Every structure is written in C-alpha cells, then in structure tokens.
Amino acid sequence: MKKNHSATLTINNKSYLLPIYKASEGSDVIDITKLYAESNHFTYDPGFTSTASCQSNITFIDGEKGILRYRGYDIEELAKKSDFIEVTNLLIYGDLPNKRQLNKYYKLISKHTMVHEQLLKFFNGFRRDAHPMAMMVGVMGALSAFYQDSLDINDPHQRMTASRRIIAKASTIGAMAYKYSIGQPFVQPDNNLSYSENFLNMCFSVPAEKYKISKVMSDAMDTILILHADHEQNASTSTVRLAGSSGANPFACVAAGVASLWGPAHGGANQAALEMLETIGNKKNVPNFIKRAKDKNDPFRLMGFGHRVYKNYDPRAKILKQTCKKVLKHIGINKDPVLDVAMELEKIALKDKYFIDKKLYPNVDFYSGIILRAMGFPPEMFTVIFSIARSSGWTAHWHEMIEDPVQKIGRPRQLYSGNKKSVYGKKRSTKNTR
Ligand code: SDX
Questions:
Q1: d(C-alpha 233, C-alpha 226), whole Å
Q2: Of the candidates 368, 400, 370, 397, which has an alpha carbon nearest to the alpha carbon of residue 385?
Q3: How far is the CA of 355 from the centre of ligand 1 (A)?
C-alpha cells in the first residue's frame, strides 16, 4: 500500500501517529491497526459506515457521482458489451479474457452445471412452500459434503475448482428451488445454451413442451446478472470474507453470503420492493405511502430506495429502468399498473425535500422486481436470482481475501456497557432487566 502521509490522534495529551494510505480512486484510509496496542482504545463504528475492512482491487463505487466499475470497467459498458460469464472471469482474474481464454472459461464453467444426484434428496426434505432462499442456503452449504476434492483452501487449483462449481451450480440449484416450489420436475442443464439461456430453460421448460427462449428475455437476464455480480464490501460479501477468514470452506462461506443477502434491507429488497409497489397498487395512493416513509414513527420505508454508498442515482437502477421498458414492450405490456406506480413514486420522491436532503434515490432493487415478474418469476425467486449473480462477486472476494498477505481471522471488538463484576447471590446495584 502507498503511504501518503499520517494523521495525528491525541488522547489524554498523548499523540499517536496513524499512517494514511492512498487509494488509486476514492477515499484514502487511516491505518489504525496498532491503535489499540498503543492507546488501549478501540474505534467505534456500528454498521462500518466509516471503516474499510480490507484492501481490494475488484470493484470501485463512487456514491456521490453514481459510478460503479468492475476492475476499472464502467458498469454501463459491461452491461452493453459483455456477458455474465465474461464479467465473472473479469472479476475473478482481474482483466477481460481474450477470445481463447473466454471460450476455455465457458467450457470450464459448463463442466460443473450438473449437481450430484443425491442432492436431489435434499429438496425432498423441504416443504413445497419453503422460501426458495431457504433451499438456496441449505443446498449451497451442503455442496461441501459432496465436493471434498475442492475444499483445501491452501491449494490454488482446488480454490479455482470450488469457485467454478459455485458459479455453475448456483443457477442449477436456483432453478431446482423454483421447480420444487411449483411442483414441476427438475430440468437438467443444457451446456449448449449460454448461462442466462440455460437458467431460463431450467426454470421455464417442461417435459410436455419445448420452451422457446426469447433473446430479449435472455439478454435481460444477462443484464440483471451482470449488474448484480459484485458491489464492493456490501453486507453479504463482507459475510463471505469474514466466514472465509476463519478458513471455512468456500461452499460454507457462500452459503453464509446467501443467508445475509436474504435480508429485506439487502438482497431481499427486490422482493420487498415489488410487494410494496403491488400494495400501493395505484398511482393515486403514492402520496400517502411517501408520507408514511417520511414518518419517523412509521416503520414503513420505500423498499428499493436509498443506499449506504450511493448518495446519487444507483447506476444499475438507470440501466434496469431501460431494460424494464424493453421487456414490458416485448411481452406487449404497454400499461403495467405496477410500473406506473414505480415511475410515479420515483417522480414524486425525487422532487420531495425529505428524499433530496437524505439523498435517497432508487437503487438496483427498484426496477429489477418488475422485470423479473414480467419474465414470469414469483417475487420469492428475485433474491435467488440476485444470489446466483452475486456468487461470482463473492468468489472473487473470497479468492482475494485468501491471497491477501495481511489477511487474518476477522475478530472485531466492542464498547462493553454491561454489568461490572458481581458476586453470586449478592443483590446487584443495577435493576433486574427481566
Ligand atoms: C442492496 O451495500 C450494498 O452495496 C447493497 C447492494 C448490493 O449490490 O450489494 O447495493 C444491494 O442491498 C441495495 C439496498 C436495498 N435495500 C432497500 O432498498 C431497503 C430500503 N433502503 C433502506 O433500508 C436503506 O436505505 C439502506 C439499508 C439501503 C441503507 O441504509 P443506511 O445507509 O444505513 O441509511 P440509514 O438507514 O441510516 O438511512 C439514512 C436516513 C434515515 O433517516 P434518519 O435516521 O437520518 O432521519 O434515510 C432514511 C432513514 O430513515 N431512509 C429512508 C429509506 N432509506 C433510508 N427513508 C425512507 N425510505 C427509505 N428507503
């Protein structure tokens, strides 16, 4: 890391020199690794709003300017010119592959699209109405029971094999979760299809009739996968890194990432956003919901709005808004009440002082649900699709974390505010909180 200059922290008239390292883009960092040892003080930052957990070369976000780049390439360019497997290769290896490397990578990934036959038994253990994310978490974690030849995290070849298995099988498992939830037979992967075509085919084809893959739909699916592939140190990626820092196997780490992504404040927001739009139901109800979103006493929030980093429009939402219109036009929906509600919500919110002051803009989850619903997916499948895409970012960060010479087990400290030493049986000064 390039040392820039230093910061001085003074505590009780004692000064501590903290090195500052220069970022290639974005904010520099103040190195506090020695602060506790020298000052007996921790830093305090719930939610890590001002804390860099690691050094990374993978993704850069500028929240003020609404910039998102994977390995230096703007997301707008990648969404237009690349495809999900090429973007996955870029995230993991660090630069765009040439034609030969890309063809080889397609073959390497497609070699792993099938799952062990015994994994099918896992699905039979779920209720049919289980949330598909429950199946995703369970089956992704269970992969570590079937692929013992790629669990040694100190062997680069095994690490690469494990990541290819995760990326290839994520879509097969996601499609199986969908088929299981609607009581239809599983559809085997078809390696003659692209990654996105294969996923749509595994979800929507049935033995009774051939499924005709539409290019508009498979292109839209590929765009969704590219846009959701990575996003710096978000909650689920940080979960994968933290789990990986203990030496846990990659399948278990990615299962932990799936679990974290499921939350409605994170990847679960696309399902919550569509359900919110459907609850609003009509443009004329929008002002009332905006009023509720601003009311401190009302827990209601505009799902699909706001972001920890973007204090400007999420560049992914801009791209998805265009994709949304293309998909709806393709299926002949000129008037979609839910899209009308979304556009009205966006129009009013972007003019409203509360949202402007708090810099709340539509995020990636605001439009993705409308597109996925138009494709025929139920809301419960939206976060599954997000987790399939993010499997490439999670594995890229997992590799980077393992190869980082300074990485060690993640173990944050705390500000302890609990009881002081107490004697068993003696009345305590603090009141019993039970
Ligand atoms: C994703 O981190 C990533 O990169 C995630 C992600 C990725 O690709 O991995 O981009 C994917 O998770 C996108 C975000 C999806 N979540 C939602 O759409 C859920 C709704 N959004 C909020 O829950 C919220 O905006 C968060 C969780 C996204 C961000 O929360 P922060 O950064 O902790 O901000 P905050 O909750 O402190 O909010 C700041 C203020 C608060 O008001 P005050 O306490 O300052 O008075 O803005 C308000 C909040 O009440 N606010 C909202 C709001 N989001 C924030 N008010 C109404 N509606 C909202 N959606």
A1: 17
A2: 368
A3: 11
Q: Which two tokens stand for residue 195?
A: 């990654």
Ligand 1 site-directed mutation target among 225, 228, 301, 309, most atoms within 8 Å of CB: 301
pTM: 0.94
Q: Does 399 qualify as catalytic in the annotation?
A: no
Q: DSSP string of 119-157?
A: GHHHHHTS-TTS-HHHHHHHHHHHGGGT-GGG--TT-HH
Distance, CA 140 to ligand 1 centroid (Å)? Answer: 28
Q: Is the beta carbon of 189 within 6 A of some atom in ligand 1?
A: no
pLDDT in tens, the chain (434 residues): 777 689 999 999 999 999 999 999 999 999 999 999 999 999 999 999 999 999 999 999 999 999 999 999 999 999 999 999 999 999 999 999 999 999 999 999 999 999 999 999 999 999 999 999 999 999 999 999 999 999 999 999 999 999 999 999 999 999 999 999 999 999 999 999 999 999 999 999 999 998 999 999 999 999 999 999 999 999 999 999 999 999 999 999 999 999 999 999 999 999 999 999 999 999 999 999 999 999 999 999 999 999 988 988 899 999 999 999 999 999 887 777 888 898 899 899 889 999 999 999 888 898 899 899 999 999 999 999 999 999 999 999 999 999 999 989 999 999 999 999 999 999 887 666 66
Point out the ligand 1 atom lying closest to the alpha carbon of residue 234: 2
C-alpha of residue 300 to centroid of ligand 1, in Å: 12
Q: 304 in ligand 1 pocket by Cβ < 6 Å?
A: yes
